[in-house]
Amino acid sequence: MSRYLCIGTLLLAMLILTNGAYAATCGGTTPCSCGDTLTTSRTLTASDPVTTTPCPWNGLEINTSIAILDCGGRSITGSATGMNGVYTPNNLAVLYVTIKNCRISNFYNGIWMGGTSAFTTISSNTITGITNAGVLINRSIGNNIIEHNVVSNNDATYAVGIWIINSMANDIVVNNTANNNAWGIAVEDTAGTQVKNNTANSNTNSGIDIYYVRHSTIENNTILSNKNGIKVWGGAFSNSLLRNTVKLNGIGIELDSSVATHTVDSNTVCNSTTNDFSVASSGHSGTNNICDNAVGWNDQGTTGCTYSCAAPPPSTCTDGTAYGQCSTTLPQYCQSGTLVDMCSTCGCPTGQSCNTTNEGCYVPPTPTCTDGTSYGQCSTTLPQYCQSGTLVDNCSTCGCPTGQSCNTTNESCYIPPTPTCQDGTPYGQCSAVTKPYYCLNGTIVNRCTVCDCPPTGTCNPSDEICYPACADGTPYYQCSITMPQFCDGGTLVDKCQVCRCPAGQTCDVTTNSCYTGPTPPVVLQCSVDADCGAGKYCRTGACATQEPVGTACDRDEQCASGHCIDSACVECLEDTECGGTQKCEDYACADIICPEGDIVDRGCVPYECTEDANCAETQECVSNKCIGLACPEGQVARAHACVGAALPGVGDGLWMYAAVIVVIIILIILAAKFIF
Hints:
- The protein is mainly β.
- Among the domains are: 32-204; 437-516 and 523-569, no CATH class; 575-605, no CATH class; 612-644, no CATH class.
- The chain is built from six helices and 58 strands.
- Helix 1 runs antiparallel to helix 6 (653-675).
- The longest helix has 23 residues, at 653-675.
- The radius of gyration is 39 Å and the shape is elongated.
- Residues 1-22 and 646-658 have low confidence and may be disordered.
């Protein structure tokens, strides 16, 4: 049973690897999407879909050396379990990769460097919501740097903030924060690792966990409120624990190892709930430690620690710097009363660099181009870039002056033409010649609410069209200066109930005209609106036709639309009163503009695709829909086209390999039948 399970697992892995061979690539000027493979350096922007859409699988794969992924402070977020935010495959040797300024959340591993990676720099990233490891270095050649990362608030049962396992040697973990995880920082089966100046607080297991590690240094770390502060176990030997602050833990420092010779100097281990020190074997050495409750530990010449937590040593160096602290005069460090240079711990003054051989600082020469621009920097004269002493155009890195665009072919800048409609009006502007014309993405449309009307016209908000005035210049649906005339759709009609009568005349509500003389007998047609038929209302005793949009009114019943707002009839109050492709804006029905999608429920739904590349490789884009390719017999769908199912070639090595494995399995099964 297990034999066939292993074979099935192997075949499934081959299919997964084969499928991965067709993943899209990104980098350089090509934006990155979820699942893409980064093949050249890139700084992510808002145009990279991986920063705007939760990833249903892995975030980004890096399969090339000497590459920089700079997220620019943008997020890569997962939406599925068992996936990686940023990773290198186990079967690749990837060197000199930098991953920085990323905000990674909701993955199995945040950043995973597998295979034989080395010389990796993981810097200034924020990683949360992880179920296995925030930063994982696995089976590396070594010489990796993990610095200035915040890896906190991950799974409190299983997650490790920063985890180095099976690395050959010389990794550096410095200035990181690893709080509220299951383990803060874990280092396993490696040598020469430096864990310095980190914070590891409130983790459910160990703040710093050291397992089978040799000749490594754990120095100047702050470790508070964990189950174990620092735990060294599993055959670890010849490590140095120096100047760490370990407080409020269950066990402060636990040396649970059968191999001796750890050096433990100048640590502050206080306020532990169980023991400040718990040491299972003898032979370790150390002095100047501060503790109250040491089980199995004695400083040299002292029972327990040299100093107690209640009265820590007052000792300082000659400039007032406390023992085990950096002086204000960089790079000096107070080491047991003596000021010594230690730039790898204390840093250097601004503009100086650290010589890790003698721990002193020096002023490095600054190489520049002819205009004073430093090597590898953009000039103030865009788009020039200082490349090893030569100024070259590099607009994809440095950008262009305002109003210019980047030609990524030759990296120079140019002034792009201004897109216009057929009458010369620029996109998104009103015509300077003909009102109310507006240039909408290359098409001239009426837009009188934005562009106004000619002096002889009036704007109808429902269709955005300007209509002409009546013969005497009165705009549509307005009262003329000649009472009681009203411009009704281009025709002057009497409407004394709206436009009133001249002085000395009286309005005949039956005919809507004015008269001079005795008042005619009043014949009331109605007393309330309900006395009139559909489309009419009661106006001073007579039934009148309900008024169109734009007419003056004093109640809803006067308007054909049923809405009187601010003493005028308006077209609508709700979207549902307009057509299916319109919405109600400012009491008028306006067309919904959706240039790159369909209108559904009065909202824009983007097209499923605009080109084949938006679809799965076995589909094509037809009428903005992804449709599966119907290939003739003997052909298969691949890369959006029907191709012959030929024998595997050089590019199909994985398929040939899978076929060979299947044949071998069949032969083994047949042989087993003959033997047994």
